[in-house]
Design a protein that fits this description.
The protein is built from three helices and four strands. The radius of gyration is 12 Å and the shape is elongated. Mean pLDDT is 79; it is low at 50-57. It has one domain. The chain starts with a strand and ends in a 7-residue tail after the last strand. It has 57 residues and is an alpha+beta fold. Helix content is 39%, strand content 14%. The strands form two sheets. It has a two-stranded antiparallel sheet. Strands 2-3 form a two-stranded antiparallel ribbon. The protein has helices spanning 17-25, 30-37, 44-48, and strands spanning 4-5, 12-13, 40-41, 49-50.
């Protein structure tokens, strides 16, 4: 069992997070978001669960 579980959470790294979040809502791919905003979307596995064992994500 995970220590903490998140659902429907998007983690975005970069200066244009709002634009990246809008593109996520539009169904754009991670590569499209990176190319247009310079922002990086966290890998799905790291966005779904967090625990001490998975802190390396």
């Amino acid at each position: 069992m995970a220590a903490v579980e998140f659902r429907n959470v998007d983690i975005v790294f970069g200066d244009r997070q709002k634009a990246a979040l809008a593109m996520i809502d539009e169904g754009k791919t991670r590569n499209e978001i990176l190319e247009k905003t310079g922002s990086v979307l966290a890998p799905r596995a790291c966005r779904s669960r967090s625990s001490a064992a998975r802190s390396a994500c």
